[in-house]
Fold each of these.
Amino acid sequence: MNIVEKILARASGRDSVAPDDVIFANVDKAMVHDVSGPGVIKVFDKLKKQGIDVSKLWDPSKIWVAEDHFVPSAEKVSAENIVKLSNFTKNYGIQKHFKYGMGQYGICHTLSHEEALVLPGEVYVGGDSHTNTTGALGAFACGLGHTDVAYVLLYGKIWFKVPETIYFKLNGKLPEHVMAKDFILKIIGDIGTDGGNYRTMQFGGSGVDAMSVESRLTLCNMTTEAGAKNGIVEPDQKVVDYLTSRGATGISLIKGDENAEYAQIIEYEGSEMEPLVAKPFSPENVVVVRDAPSVDLDKSYIGSCTGAKYEDLEAAAKILKGRKVKIRTEVLPASISIYKRAMENGLLTIFLDAGVTIGPPTCGACCGAHMGVLAKDEICISTTNRNFPGRMGHVDSQTYLSSPLVAAASAVTGKITDPRDLP
Amino acid sequence: MKGHIIKYARDNIDTDVIIPGQYLKIHDYAELATHAMEGLDPNFHSKVKDGDFILSGKNFGCGSSREHAPIALSHSGIKAVLALSFARIFYRNAVDGAFLLPIEIGEDAYNAISEGDEVNIDISKNEIKNITKNQTYGMKPFSEIIGKIIEAGGLFNYKPD
């Protein structure tokens, strides 16, 4: 069995599972945020009317709550959703509620690793499609809708069809100016936005072994854009060290068998990778940065669970140090812990000196919610994950997806720019 | 189940156009319905009628896990989406929440059925009859668990064996 089959076999109490088996898996951890939480509350209200008991959750200690999509509240509907969410966690005794304005909070997928909330080998589900991110820690991490999450919160289990696995093998390290974001864009460009549909996308090879945990998180994050059920990297000592330094204990490593089976193995050579962008209006619309159209950009956005981890901010700061931005540029660290480290290590000063505006952790403009959405015909380069029509604002705005290095280099020139070509 | 077709002859209709992100804060289903398909077809809300079906290409519903997407379509009156394929979360949200039927069709049905055609979907026979054109097409049968959840009326009414 491969790692996902092993995790799902354990979670469903079986000796083994194979692709296409339908199982009920016991869930180890579950998450909701300020969009899926109120959605779950609505499902609970409906169930109550049908006479289904919703008075107790399966295990409040295994559930955690994030405020990320619509904080800080820009208007009253969002503000009321936060009140609803707070009442929900209070009534059901959920202790891990990361609240805006009260210490550590941030984007749910960022908290899952920053706070070591999920461990290798666990089954983790969240009410958000980018829950896949956390597979970088060696967990089976999968996004679900409100009804499914409501089911998990009440019963601690959910059905899955065991996925086939596509194994992406990266031979050799990525070059210095190329980031994990470029590698995952390359893959999505090759297999398309349905290339991973219903399947697991697993990453390995010496290039992935050499990557930091944060880079692996970027890979798994955008498996969602290929339609995958989950993304995963087999955990190693780097993951153990990462989680241990954040307070986790009792970590055990799980790996696939030597003779594990994969539906497909696709190999890439690290040395051949280049900085890439995904053009509007699809993450599969990928071109090499040096072949990108010469458009006048209006904005550079360095934010989101995909592109505002500490290492992402560090990459942007490397470019922006001693330079000035030519277009509107925003940096929104993905959590308070990252924000604080960026301050302590001088990154925020570099950003401010370059002319950047620094915002609070939020999903914000990544999903067109608030805090810097795009006007009609505006063009943005962004470290986020999607660029469908209207994703970051007006339906006639455009988003190019890139690595933080490319987004920062483009902020300096106002054009889509390969970091190697900066004067 | 009989209804008229609203056809979007394209692939990869994503959740950002089915229900744009700015509306995710809304949990009033009727209000969500007024914004359904707004990112692609601003006339959708005025033209959709209760019982209509959407017909589309590959990878329908790709993108976000937002259950708002099948909810907005369902509360607009859409009873089924016929597509060449579906993105996984949209598919399971549609079924587990019993919002609408995601019907996988072949190229024959996709090409032959036009906007406004009246069709009858018979899931017991895995058959789609085009009443307007007097044609019949197959549909992909539901897998066992999906069929059982649909029959039960959603995940919460489904009792695993």
Amino acid sequence: MVRHIIPKTYREALEHLKSGSLHILAGGTDLMVQNRAWSETPVAFKKDTLYVYNLEELRYIEREGDMLHVGALASYDMLERHPDTPSALKRCIALLASPGLRRVATLAGNIGNASPAADGVLVLYALDARVVLDSADATREIPIEEAITGPGRTAFEDGEMIREIRIPLEDFDSERFKKVGGRKADAISKVSFLGAAAFDGDVIKDLRLALGAVNTTVVRRREIEAQYQGLTAADLKARSQEIREAYAPYVRPIDDQRSTATYRRQVALNLIEDYIHSL
Amino acid sequence: MADITFTLNGERITLREEPNLRFLDVLREKLNHTGAKEGCGEGECGACAILLDGHIVNSCLLPLASVDGRDVVTIEGYRMTERYQMLEKAFIEEGAVQCGICTPGMMIAAESMLRENPDPTDEEIRHGLAGNLCRCTGYNMIIAAIRRAAKEGEGLW
């Protein structure tokens, strides 16, 4: 029998996490589907489950200087309404799931679920977000790309849970979020893309390109981005084919029920090239 | 088993049940509130929609544990309101109901949207209904009904 634990406080939740590997259920929009049983029967969680949705201490969004602190239980709906939420994330949230799911689903839950197709997580990669993990007796902060190690896999230890996500607030002159899915709402992406760029006059000082659902984790290659900083937009466009080719080795999608590897690869690289031409 | 206390359509209740029950099943099987329907069971169709603290959520993905301390309104409670009466009239007049399975969820989605945006554009209505599927009407009549309810029910929301 698995145990079902409903902690009253965050401190109590961390104490319970000492007992081993637990599901941590925030909004539940991933875990409830993955562990679905027959209708009218309880959800069949395979591990002890910690229900944290009502830990109000973690339901916050706070700006501190140029950093946004997003509590683990801040829903996408809260983020959509908050004045300090980065516009790139708001663009993504507008196309993410549906109003009913956005009300309960969280960034932290999507990080814990570690799907390479999670649109919100794609944005976190592009924005250099960091994840703050607590355990009963320690705290650490790691970059998002170190937090997620593969499909459904994270670098979190048993005993740790996400307290908050930290998102640096930066201005971009250009942003594009593209989601390729079977339906406008409630679709899991076949491919997703976030591009952002900041200019100093005509010169690119910051370029960010991230792709979702084309590899085991979100693809962002800082070394490729860095090569093109300092160029003018015109120079960049002239080299769009080269940029496309630079990303090709990292775009290694799979065939699944949503799409095919061939389609995903073609679309992902087209999205990069098209974004470069839009700058 | 856990004691879970919440408000259901204005009435405070406490249940001793498994916290991993889907709230949809609690409503339908334990509390005899069958207005919320199971369509897909995975958050894609909106037939199970309820208002949680005044906002639409999918009750098929909500474990009972998450409802503790919260305010729940289902279509059974919502139908006692003047706003519901306005929506019902508009749905009838626009022919927005055929088989009826999606209708409770559509009404909940409409209420959730209208209470934040009492004068929505068609685009905003579509955005508000994005999580609700209807296989009969083709949506246009539902959108027309909500547009009509917002207009004729001016001041209600």
Amino acid sequence: MSGLRADGEETAKMTLDESGAKRRGELMTEIDLSVNGRRHSVECEAHTTLLTVLRRLGCFSVRFGSATGETGAAAVLVDGRLVAADVLLAAQAVGHEITTVEALNVATGEYHPIQEAFVEAGAMQSGYSAGAMVLATKALLEANPDPTEAEIRDALSGILDRETAYVKVVEAVKRAAAALRGEKCRPMDPVVVDALAGYKASPAATVTEVDGEVSMAVPRLVISPDVPQTAVVGKPETKVDALRLVKGNPAFTDDIEPRGMLFAKVLRSPHAHARIVAIDDSAAAALPGVHAVLHCRNTARVKYASGGQSWPNPPPWDQVSFDDKVRHVGDRVAAVAAESTEIAEEACRLIKVTYEELPAVFDEVEAIKPGAPVIHDETDTEGIFDSGRNISHHIEGQTVSDEALEAAFAGADRVFEETFHVQQVQHTPIEPHITIGWLDEDERLVLRTSTQVPFHVRRMVAPLLGLPVKRIRVIKPRLGGGFGAKQEMVIEDIVGHLVLATRHPVRLELTRAEEFISTRVRHAMTVTFRSGVDAEGRLVAQDMSVVSNTGAYGTHGFTVNSVSGQHGLSLYNCPAKRFRCDVAYTNRPVAGAFRGYGAPQAFFALESHMDDIARALGLDPYEIRERNWVRTGDPLDIVLRLGERGGVEDLAPEDIPVITSCGLEECALQGRRAIGWERRSDPAWHRPADRPHIRRGLGMALAIQGSGIPLVDMAACSIKINDDGSFNMLVGATDLGTGSDTVLAQIAAEVLGVPIEDILVYSSDTDFTPFDVGAYASSTTYISGGAVKKAAEAARARIVVRAARLLGVDDASTIELHDRRAWALDGRSVSMGDIALNALHTEDQEQIMGTASHVSPESPPPFAAQLAEVEVDIETGQVTVTKLVTAVDCGVPINPITASGQVEGAMLQALGYALCEEVVLDEAGRPLNDRFGPYWIFRADDTPPMEVYLVQTMEPSGPYGAKAVAEIPIDDVAPAVRNAILDATGVAINAIPFTPERVWRALQPAT
Amino acid sequence: MSYLRPTSWAEALAARAEYPEAVVVAGGTDVMVEINFGRLHPSALLDLSRVGELRALGREDGHVRVGSGVTYQSIMRDLPGELPGLAAAARTVGSPPIRNRGTIGGNLGSASPAGDCHPPLLACGAEVEIASVHTSRTTPVADFFVGPKRSVLGPDELIAAVWVPAATGPQTFSKVGSRNAMVIAICSFALALHPDVGRVGTGIGSAGPVPLRARAAEQFLEGHLGETGAWESRPRLGDAVVDEFARLVAGAAQPIDDVRGSADYRRHALGVVARRSLMWCWDEFRGGRP
């Protein structure tokens, strides 16, 4: 083919020898690429993607999300147009100009106006796809300097974001457009909204006029008069990690590549349930380039539970690194480390495994029936509740005896019973699970890994590898999202085994299909509520029973399902409550932690059930809730009967925790106003005259969550001063995109009287940072924030002593810190830098520092009201959510931008749960939708308008009044949508997701 | 693996003849997924992205000749007036990164039953221009697909262009999916009215092994409109006519149960979309007559 020429280049160079071309991965050629204005000569293979080549060239902003072009994390500009570099041949880019976000990074520490707008608007959470979004914006604005919202959403639609719900991204694009047109934008300061319940705006607070013109990306804030004025806390500070994210700087696990690194692949089970009779790895091991093949025949059998939880991890410890039995399609069989991914894949194909197939069971209710195949028949797992019946855990908790409960039901005016079903869904962080491991110069094992729980991983991986904890270091770089999927040790042990076996650095990154089938999913559940009410609709008895699907392993089975009961039975006051749950093993993918952690399942059932009771009693859905909801001072009487410290038989009344702050009524009122609740009683609105096939409806649901796990979650922090009066702050807390590094820095800055940029946050590295349980259970702001506040106060105590001495003041307690200075009462002051120089260099020298840890005996609940407006197409069953509102009481939001960003992101994940997401298996347990597309997550162009209201309450036990925020907004979108469909059509649907087909079938008259 | 990179149509056809086993890559948005997933291990890749002729749009005899290398983006931007159905379908494809690369020829070449371009091409009565070093031929789109991901394309042939009659009446394209904008539809439907010749065109996607025409529905409606003189008088269409058309469209589908929906539901949804499409198109054709 030498006659074919391309751009003057001899294409024969690209026409490679075919003799050995049957296998990929051996024939290299050289191409010339023009990237960001520079020419590069790159070696690659014919099938190499542009993504691979760009990352090799150091364009770290171009990232892997899938190999299908569907996530857009790898989007770049080719001749100014956005294209997906993961589905573009590198060779096809020859002769074209390629632009990545690195092209905008001309000055150190400075931003391009588009980047500046992204930072200001809070458009990034993890920032994993920030580069792609900035480029999409650049391409759009160059063609169209004043785009409409629809045009912006279309331009962003190829870049999936599982974190922001696109609200602040769209805002950033609008701001960037305005900036490039030379216009000024309103700052992102919250819009203060008048309270509707018992609050009065604090006279000290700055009250902004409510302005309908201000974008809903700007948080709305209802101010509590109990909240004192602060300088940094409560302000819309920009993220401390904004620069590294918006510039696409190397910050994530995959952004380093040790020399001599090997690539790992995992051979996964094609069967839902089978015994491994024999493994022949000889052909795989003999393949050139293969360094290790590990499986059950050559790896120690050490039992563990993969859930990242405090020691001792709740039983059963029913997993081993490589088992001689597989329990779901995608279960681990073997792992290979080789010199390229292609060789590792080829080696996996060469491993001969002989399986004895076993019958499988997928449904949780079927699994616990007599005669179901026994999934954990091994003899060395302790702590399974009833292995013969596939029950991993049985959980019980009640506030009264069985007899008293039945007596309460007998005394009720009406008793209602309903059963609900919720499905498995997957977290789909855009950054998949990835771990790079190596032996350091002291031959200690280093694991750089995308985890929410670095300290748990270090402790849990040690016995599996036969290493003491001290021989292991776990580094958590930036994470591209986690949502609970990374609160598990999913792959770190595999990498550890392979590093020890090969003594080479080893990298394992999961594919998108592996994310779906082999990481974790949300527990599917069958939930039954039986409720007794009096004539006014007040609850007199609540009986909640659950059969939960933990999949093949028990990991989080105990704790997630306990939380279902703890939250599901804490929203309303009721004198008699009982929770019972069987957690079933099945041959489905493994269920684990997922944002909300058992609460979304419970609230779908509870809040649907409450609407049905209201309907039966002729009450407004708001009314029945108002008659039952908890208020400040009410007891949380089921919480201590369940959970890690649960099973308390005889609780003294004074041991029962009470609610110390509660903005639930305000949340419900704000939500009701924002959604236009009065339209519920307007028949004309429900049936738009111009579209006879459409029915409209409104729905509401409420939720309660926790703030960390009381007496279990511990966090620590260490702060030291530098010569210039800045501070290094080391925290074990794990920012997975939530903004916790920023929020924690705000707390430290507030205590120390400095701006947030003077706090240099480092998180987290088991060698350097103090312990923290990790990012889960809505604990970081409340628990880790508590540790930061204490550590900062310890440093502050030394600062004021030294400042008093420098200022000649006798009583150090009169010194105040603000504006980077220490102030005496008479107005004299000394700078933080001078205090530092004095302490470090000149007089009675010391390192001013503070270290503290924090555990809370309480878990003050945040509250939320979520409301949905829907349109149901009664001919097709298509449900279109036309508006979502969330009003949340998270105490004092430390940062209203990051807090509202958390709420928005959770709302959109929850909307997927309600409408379209489901991990679907065929009859053999094989995945049918293990990629985006068939598994739908919302894009920028199909997201409904969202409104977020932050309702302040002053939580006495929280740092500066804070409670948790990250999980609660995921709890209630599904029941709010369900109740809105009920309002629209009169049809109650008790299973999600509300696919068009499910809704259409429900709308058909019963035959 | 060989990588063939012709820069002219003649070179491309020569390469195709010499490497019949080569996998053809245009925008790459479909093929690269298969290669990345390891489902395709071609011994050669034939990259058509440098063949400038394939990106051309031409007009002849009331037809638009759309080069096989024309992207969805270009269809949306350049053809909404002449080929409104095809432009509407292009607008629903993927997202800008996919629309900027994906081509009409690639969509046809993949021959997916869910290909977005196929229903409007069927409804318009488009023809595919196919060439090899020896011959050139055209085939109606309706005869192009022979099975799931299989077409009449011979091992030495390439798609040169698609000939689409310029619209003489209203056209629509609709998808039914899990969300407002979805990547792969539960089913899709295209309708084109050709008042100049008294013809009705339909195309059904994602509801059979190949993209389908609802011929009985077309004939029924053509018969009704012709017999009643409706092309001239443009009256309102009675419910019975619209319902019968919808019933015949649904009956033409050959859907299966899969993760996106059951066969029953798909057939039902297709009927709904067909009814609405006819009402939209006819209303547009009537042009606001009372």
